[in-house]
GH17899
Amino acid sequence: MFKLHFMLCICYALFFVIRSQIAYEEEVDLDKGKQNLNGRKPVYLPARCPRYQLLYPGDQLNDWICDCSPAALYYPETDACYPAYKRGPCKEGEMLVLYKEKVVPECVSNPCQTDGLFRIRDKCFEFGNSNHSSNPCPNKELTFVLGVNPRTLMVDCVQLSMQVETRFSLGETAPNDYYIDMAEKCMRGSRLVAQGHCSKQP
């Protein structure tokens, strides 16, 4: 009898241990513009995609492609993506810019002559600097910093992204400047757009 009682206690404890290890999927409000027909969304997978790129889903089951993350620009000469308004593949003292009417970015002179700095009213400011005295943005207390707007690819005051890693996170989380929450296939500045593979031009 003691053995039976002991076995029941073990089974009961094992049941609760196993039950506590099961992860239940949370209900997520999926934005249809950010997913493909099968509901898959872009993912950060540095083992598969080069720097400044995300893995975007296609509309077939095994159809995935690496392309630029938002606020990064595809540069055909090097077949790589680089952050907008930074040096990237350009010469020292230059930065990579995608003008509104263009599809391919170009290297232009950086008036600050230092990578990561941008001139506003004859003063150079550092991208992403949240130090109040070095931040030109009006909403500093709301964590707005100088950066590149991922939708317009223009220099703007952008809110710092706060990513929370949970115990259910799979692998690495994307760096803040990857803007994974805004990633959409065929965004302006992407490889697909530059190569003419998108039906609508953003």
About this structure: The beta strands are 53-57, 64-68, 72-75, 80-83, 94-97, 106-109, 117-120, 123-126, 144-148, 155-159. The chain has one domain: 33-194. The radius of gyration is 23 Å. Residues 33-194 form one domain.
